[in-house]
């Protein structure tokens, strides 16, 4: 069994770095996620007892003082840190410029979703999961879609 300090790569692409005991996360450790976020916690026999999640852009989640995108303040974290863009220049996602979505697909936050195959892939096009009916409907209803836009005006 693994014991001491070590690294453990999970099949999901996540990686644990920290203390291990009897093959379990135990003590101080950090779970690094493929999306770029991380969860640093104090673990007890594989279960986190205290911890903090940090998004890929550095935003730390705080359950008690969470004010980000709460209905009253709809700014992205990068807008909170750097201010708004000039009028007429929209910021569509926290990542600026946003990822270019493949034709016919949606950006569902952790990757791209193809409604024809019902598959979600990460931003490097690596398989993440198959979407069930509930996720499929949510993505179609709420997520950004690749648009087919003519960039220039064609006179008649």
TrEMBL record:
Annotated compartments: Cell projection, Cilium, Flagellum
Main location: other
Pfam families: MORN
Name of the protein described by the UniProt record: MORN repeat-containing protein 5
Alphabetized InterPro entries for the sequence: MORN, Morn5
GO annotations of cellular component type: motile cilium
UniProt entry keywords in alphabetical sequence: Cell projection, Cilium, Flagellum, Repeat
Record organism: Sinosuthora webbiana
